Amino acid sequence: MSPAWSATQLRGETRDLLRDAVERLRGRDVALIAAGLTFYAGIAVVPLLLVALALTALVASPDAVRELGGRLGDLLPAQLGAPEAVRTLVDAGVTMGLLEFVLALVPLSFYGEGLRRALLRFTAEDDTLTGWRGRLLAMPLVAAFPVLSYPLLMAAGVMAGMQDRGSDVGSFFVGYYSVLAVLTVPLGWGYGVIAGGRRLHWGALVSGVLFTAACLSGFLQGFVVFLGLPLALGAPFGGLTAVGAVVAIILWLWLLHLVVIAGWLLTQSLDERLRRAAQPPGRPPVSGRP
């Protein structure tokens, strides 16, 4: 196989994969579906972070989590009060009582429902009890929160130290790849388990998760840059900066969920192509399209 032929084949496969993913959008308002998923995320995001911090404090210690959380806050631009917001969130998480922890699991589980509802819109699955299935399937991931959040907090400490030494590029790469690595676990669980349906080909699942995690990590780095821009976010809302900041966060969450849905569509398309290639000649193709 010559390199030129290999490059041509790669371009052709990529083009066909993208075309198939776009075909799956036919008849569906992806912007509205992403907005619905963003609504569920708005309910779940703060309880999720609080539970993750509480569990991490049990594995490490409250003081260690506070220190690393403070270092994380120092990495964020101060224009909109992000560092203080992070410190307040960390303090609330490490001081949660048992009853507060249990109650936080209820809104946290709503994201599993939203994710299942959104992703199943692009499949042929006839699901029942979608909300309850999504919530229950999201709960096992809670056990992995300390394994995911503590290394991320440690990476924030490393990044802060690198910035103190003037190594902004190194800090960027540490942040990008640490977030990418952490996102692979919830994305893999979301695509492979919460979304339901038939079992995905492992090659399609791994490729789709890594691609989506890389895109999401890049978007999150962009969000940090956005926080540092001298924008009058309250201008369209009568000078209410807090309202403008909340709307901006919702908009970024919506964009992130567009990426999650795009990654799901590409994963499905790759899964179908891999299954088709592995089928014996003469057998009718298997399709997961609605």
UniProtKB/TrEMBL annotation:
Q: Which UniProt keywords apply?
A: Cell membrane, Membrane, Transmembrane, Transmembrane helix
Main localization category: membrane
What's the protein here called? Membrane protein
Q: What species does this protein belong to?
A: Geodermatophilus pulveris
**Where does the secretion signal sit in this chain?**
none
Q: How does this protein sit in the membrane?
A: Multi-pass membrane protein
Q: Does the keyword Cell membrane apply?
A: yes
What does the UniProt entry say about where the protein is found? Cell membrane
